[in-house]
Amino acid sequence: QVQLVESGGGLVQAGGSLRLSCAASGRTFSAAVMGWFRQAPGNEREFVAGIRRGGTIIAYADFVKGRFTISRDNRNNTVYLRMNSLKPEDTAIYYCAAGIYYCLGSGCYSVSAYDYWGQGTQVTVSS
Q1: How far apart are CA 72 and CA 74, in angstroms?
Q2: What is the C-alpha to C-alpha distance for residues 94 and 64, in angstroms, rounded to an integer?
Q3: Measured CA angle at 10 (ends 8, 15), to 5 deg
Q4: Distance in angstroms (rounded) separating the CA atoms of residues 121 and 123
Q5: With 0-12 CB in 10 A as exposed, 13-18 as middle and 19+ as buried, what is 105?
Q6: Beta partners for 98?
Q7: Can you give the C-alpha Rg of the chain in angstroms?
Q8: Where are the beta strands (DSSP E) in 14-103?
Q9: Over the stretch 25-56, which tens digit does the pLDDT of each residue have?
Q10: I want to staple 103 with a disulfide (CB 3.0 to 4.6 A). Which of 70, 90, 107, 124 is the partner?
């Protein structure tokens, strides 16, 4: 059985930090790519950051560059998203995703590149 479980969300003031974790079980951690997405009410799910199996960063969305850092610990089957300098517009449900197959460039930004998803963790940033 494949499972992704996110944790670490919560309520934080603007300028604060959070670290999200995504614990993977099953064969997902041999996944070619892991990603973080987010979805705010009324908006589509959007790519935040992605990382390849070997640790190479795929990309960050422009709106998080310089503030968020994605990393993975293959030994512990966990992917992290460190979020600094949080803004109210970062408020959303954050989802972890795993893609079994290799993706290239902007193809990795699409939800269709990912095969498995977690249930999401709420991040709320107050002004």
Answers
A1: 6
A2: 13
A3: 100
A4: 7
A5: exposed
A6: 34, 116
A7: 13
A8: 18-25, 33-39, 46-52, 57-60, 68-73, 78-83, 92-99
A9: 886 557 789 999 999 999 999 999 999 988 99
A10: 107
